[in-house]
Amino acid sequence: MKKKVITALLASLFALSITACGSSTTSDNVNESQTSEDDVQEDESIDSNDAQDESELSQSEWMEQHANDAEDGYEVVDSINIDSGDTKLEYLSNEKCTLESGEEVLLVNFIFTNVSAGTTNLDSQYNFKAFQDGVEVTVYSSLYDEIEGDSNRRKEILDGASIDVSIGIAPDNWESPVRLRVDDSMMYDDAENMGHTFQQQEIDLQ
73-130, pLDDT tens digit by residue? Predict the structure, then answer.
């Protein structure tokens, strides 16, 4: 009789042990599933925050994140295309031009658009620099010839208007490419405004 009682008790204890283990496993699976879902949500939240924060980065902070896509703080692009909010500047083409003096210059052609800057012109909105073989070359403020695109740089245009403009560059040779750098950071801008654009385009002269 004692053996039967002991056997029954052992069987009951064994059954309880199996039930407890099963509950523990189920609980562990639920916890693991919940943790996995939380990780996915956290990753998505991080990606979303990264995209939002990038628009608020300063020039130096942006450079740290895009070091492979930039040079000296300028974003390396196939074609200059800057939208400052008030104005836009979009690369169109480039060509060799012979001035009346016989000098050959590189003309880089853009379309300049006044979105909402009041009455303005290209030269009051953008800065230009050019380099060849690592050395700065001349970017003319004026070519003093009857070249429409060059003259248009200084023409005032109203809100909503666009005009074709040209930048004259004096390369040292016609074999090496020219790196043209353009930015919309002007001296009169608010010093706390970090939303300026710096772009660099390589122009093949051959």
Answer: 999 999 999 999 999 999 999 999 999 999 999 999 999 999 999 999 999 999 999 9
- Measured CA to CA, the distance from residue 52 to residue 86 in angstroms comes to 22
Structural domain boundaries of the chain? Answer: 1-56, 75-203
Architecture of domain 75-203: Sandwich (2.60)
**pLDDT, position 206:** 85
CA distance 108 to 96: 9
3-state secondary structure string across 59-95? HHHHHHHCHHHEECCEEEECCCEEECCCEEEEEEEEE
Nearest partner of 170 among 101, 71, 93, judged by Cα = 101
**Share in percent of the chain as helix, strand, coil (round to 5):** 35, 30, 35
